[in-house]
Design a protein that fits this description.
By secondary structure, the chain is α/β, with parallel strands linked by helices. It has helices spanning about 45-60, 65-80, 85-95, 100-105, 105-120, 155-165, 185-195, 210-215, 230-240, 265-275, 295-305, 330-345, 375-380, 395-400, 415-425, 460-465; strands at about 10, 15, 25, 35-40, 125-130, 135-140, 145-150, 170-175, 200-205, 220-225, 245-250, 255-260, 290, 345-350, 365-370, 385-390, 410-415, 430-435, 455, 465-475. The protein is about 40% helix and about 20% strand. The chain is globular and about 80 Å long. It binds NADPH dihydro-nicotinamide-adenine-dinucleotide phosphate (NDP). NADPH dihydro-nicotinamide-adenine-dinucleotide phosphate binds next to helix 8 and helix 9.
Length: about 475
């Protein structure tokens, strides 16, 4: 396979193999074939990586922001130059169509490295004058950060976490999902080639236990997780025991609200992208599509016509635009939700069929006439299953949209400018869209409220989550001691 990494781990500036750890088979989701065999990190390798990263971080933090930024931006350039190879690898890792990975993965990672590389030279504290005395603040790194990734965007997640962490002068140990371990290794290799000193960005493979060992080590200062809400609760609790900083990018069941006055085809495009991109395996997807009754029939008709045009097939073929699910377990979960939807009385409008070929394939699925109490309107499915719900009034849809434990994203389609802003302002979600869905430019903060997460990735806001302020009082006037 093109550009496959050379060993399981990347530690202290080089590839490292450690066959004492349990084997991890990497399976291509489109065919079920084993494409690589890696090993989990052993306790000894974890300890050694932490030790070297802690030492390296001090020297990295001592460099100027401009120097750190140059290295990150050089890495961004290398990623862009190698976008095709990295995209092919991302497709092998995840099964997502090359048509998507060419534009959404390595390129998004490069954007993050460029953006935070640019910000690095601007990181500063402030000066607060207090008469003749003053206070100044120093913006300092947290130290050693651990990043733990989900399997849907392995390159993007590694870069979204590494870029702000490294820009602020931290070191990072990244543990990819065991399902998609390959891409982060290439990012480590490229960062190293761009001049990143050894020990600053390391990749260790393994299941949840490796993540736990990293989180529980007292030398680790911060944990940034992208994963499900149940994993988030466990990771947050472990981090709390050590009073560590956290960023939690977790799951969602986001509302996408389509008013009668919306542009029909634009709204259908938003619903398709917000449900079927990456075969529905996107945390911020708008999986509860609320459609006002006046536009409902036209919407469902157009949606059905357009979903039928999905090109399902070999993900490495650039004309394919709908790929497989990550693994057999996820396929099982999605099938069970579809069966539950049917048994609870939802109307299956389209899809829901297993495709008879090796790998984990199911057609894009649309349910209509969904009610708020149905399981598929409540739980995150993380697969290509759209639930269409009807609504009559603005007040009603806002209340129903907010009736969920999640709060990651929300979208509104309307041509009424005032209504768009008014509705978005009342939705309980961190990442919102008006007449669009799922855009995630690096300039915009990304993250959830309620159970969907803590903290923000991307934008200037991420700097707050990878640095801390030291305040220094400087006295120029005599100290007045009472005795
Ligand atoms: P999981 O929560 O199952 O796993 C996430 C990561 O955590 C994996 O690397 C996993 O390792 C690791 N992990 C699992 N248990 C532990 C533990 N006890 N301690 C430390 N690490 C652990 O999520 P998935 O990989 O299945 O991804 C899907 C979920 O991620 C969905 O809920 C989705 O919404 C969410 N997500 C959120 C995003 C966001 O930005 N808000 C973006 C993308 C996805 P292992 O692989 O071995 O299980």
């Amino acid at each position: 396979m093109i550009g496959q990494p050379n060993a399981s781990h990347f530690v202290n500036g080089k590839y490292v193999e450690d066959t004492s750890g349990q084997e991890l088979d990497v399976i291509y989701p489109a065919t079920g074939e084993v494409i690589a065999r890696l090993h989990e990190a052993s306790r000894q390798l974890i300890d050694q990586t932490i030790h070297q990263a802690v030492r390296a971080q001090k020297m990295w933090a001592a460099k100027s922001g401009a120097e750190r930024g140059r290295i990150l931006r050089r890495a961004a350039d290398l990623i862009r130059e190698r976008n095709r190879d990295l995209s092919v690898l991302e497709t092998y890792d995840t099964g997502k169509p090359l048509q998507e990975t060419l534009v959404a993965d390595a390129t998004s990672g490069a954007d993050a490295l460029d953006y935070f590389g640019g910000l690095a030279a601007n990181l500063a504290g402030e000066h607060i004058q207090l008469g003749n005395d003053w206070v100044y603040t120093r913006r300092e790194p947290l130290g050693l950060c651990v990043g733990i990734g989900a399997w849907n965007y392995p390159t993007q997640i590694a870069c979204w976490k590494a870029a702000p962490a490294l820009a602020c002068g931290n070191a990072m140990i990244f543990k990819p999902s065991e399902e998609t371990p390959l891409c982060a290794l290439k990012i480590a290799e490229i960062l190293s080639e761009a001049g990143l000193p050894p020990g600053i960005f390391n990749v260790l493979q393994g299941r949840g236990k490796v993540g736990e060992a990293l989180i529980n080590d007292p030398k680790v200062d911060k944990v940034s997780l992208t994963g499900s809400v149940p994993t988030g609760r466990r990771v947050y609790a472990m981090a709390a025991a050590g009073m560590k900083h956290v960023t939690m990018e977790l799951g969602g069941k986001s509302p996408l609200i389509i008013f009668d006055d919306a542009d029909l085809d634009e709204a259908v495009s938003g619903a398709i992208l917000g449900n079927f991109y990456s075969s529905g395996q996107v945390c911020s997807n708008g999986t509860r599509v609320f459609v006002q009754t006046g536009i409902k029939e036209a919407f469902l008709k157009r949606l059905q016509e357009r979903v039928a045009n999905a090109i399902i097939g070999d993900p490495q073929n650039e004309s394919t635009n709908f790929g497989p699910l990550i693994n057999a377990r996820q396929l099982d979960i999605v099938q069970n939700y579809i069966a539950t939807g049917k048994s609870e009385g939802a109307r299956l409008l389209y899809g829901g069929e297993i495709i008879d070929r090796p790998g984990n394939w199911i057609t894009p699925t649309v349910f209509a006439d969904i009610t708020d109490d149905m399981t598929i309107a409540i739980e995150e499915i993380f697969g290509p299953v759209m639930a269409v719900l009807d609504f009559e009034t603005e007040a009603e849809v806002i209340a129903r949209a907010n009736t969920t434990e999640f709060g990651l994203a929300a979208g509104v389609f309307t041509n009424d400018l005032k209504r768009g802003h008014r509705v978005i302002a009342q939705l309980e979600a961190g990442s919102c869209f008006i007449n669009s869905y799922n855009d995630a430019p690096v300039e915009a903060p990304f993250g959830g409220v309620k159970q969907s997460g803590v903290g923000r990735e991307n934008s200037k806001a991420a700097i707050e989550h990878y640095s801390q302020l030291k305040s220094v009082y400087v006295r120029m006037t005599p100290i007045e001691a009472p005795y």
